[in-house]
Specification:
about 0% strand, single chain, elongated, 4 helices, about 70% helix, mainly alpha
């Protein structure tokens, strides 16, 4: 029986770190590497580059949108 766990390659780890640095999400990483979201989050955390919390990310996006709307209304 094949093991469900597969080791992360060095190339995958480099790409994962680059995705996190670029502001990518765990969902996109999971799709790219064909792995579970929790696995991507866990591996990023182990490497010391955790994904941004989704609630904080959403809050920041909404704040940027509000700032642009305010600027456009002037």
């Amino acid at each position: 029986m094949k093991s469900l766990k597969s080791e992360w390659t060095e190339e995958e780890l480099k790409q994962l770190a680059a995705m996190v640095a670029a502001g990518g999400t765990a969902l996109r990483a999971a799709a790219k590497f064909n792995r579970r979201i929790a696995s991507c989050r866990s591996q990023a955390r182990k490497m010391g580059v955790p994904f941004e919390n989704s609630k904080i990310r959403r809050k920041n996006i909404l704040a940027k949108c509000a700032a642009v709307e305010k600027e456009l209304s002037r």
